[in-house]
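Most newcomers find our protein records easier to grasp once they have seen one. Nothing more is needed to start thinking about how sequence determines fold. Here is such a record, shown just as it appears in the course material:
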Amino acid sequence: MQGDNVFCSGQKILTKEGQDGWYRTFRGYPDMNQGIKDMLRGYADEGKYSSILIFFVNKCNFGVEYSSFLMREFGRGFI
């Protein structure tokens, strides 16, 4: 039995440094208005990744794994 390919195009990659070992297995990003994106981008630029994680877990009620994925994507500049 062969498993489905759960990766979207461009997701099965390592970070620029190639050190975190994470594969991007989630599909897509949630809809966010520009103000929220700017706020989270500001957190990422300042290195306040815990604030991004807290926002997604507590404010959006996303699971920790998906929130961590979104946090990494903001950190990498993909969102």
